[in-house]
């Protein structure tokens, strides 16, 4: 299937396709997804899905990109050093409340190769710059690695609910309550400890 063909826009049709595609890809991945199911769920002709996006793989990439767009819209960057812990919690709350993005990223790791062309600097670079500013640390490479640790704290529990259930001996119906309650408090405490320790080391390096 060649690239997308220009078609007259139908109000809301692209967003309906992306919503349906996100649900389908999150459930069964790229290989297991069916474009006809996505089209049916979106209430649109299958050929129009191809007209908008060109291929199933391109639609998967668009669904991931839309997930990051929603994350950027819902989770503003930290407002200075004092906001970094709350920023980590906002990321955590987003992933707990929007598990589809985490699932898409897991499928992406399994089914899409690591290519330079798939990098998303438009999303990540701004976030890393915010960590650099918030921590007052000019060692950008070090801060990049720290940001990965904080993002992992925020995203991992929601993306790995089976492991959370196993480790905590929680039943499947109570995992969401755990994530929204005591696990959230634990993430806040861990993020605060990491950031405080980092600030101390950063200050020592500057002296």
Automatic annotation (TrEMBL):
Residues 34-53 bind DNA. Keywords: DNA-binding. Pfam families: TetR_C_21 (PF17926), TetR_N (PF00440). PROSITE patterns: HTH_TETR_2. Residues 11-71 form the HTH tetR-type domain. One of its GO terms (molecular function) is DNA binding. InterPro entries: Homeodomain-like_sf, HTH-type_TetR-like_transc_reg, HTH_TetR, Sco4008_C, Tet_transcr_reg_TetR-rel_C_sf. It comes from the Bacteria. This is TetR family transcriptional regulator. It comes from Rhodococcus rhodnii LMG 5362. The lineage of its organism: Bacteria, Bacillati, Actinomycetota, Actinomycetes, Mycobacteriales.
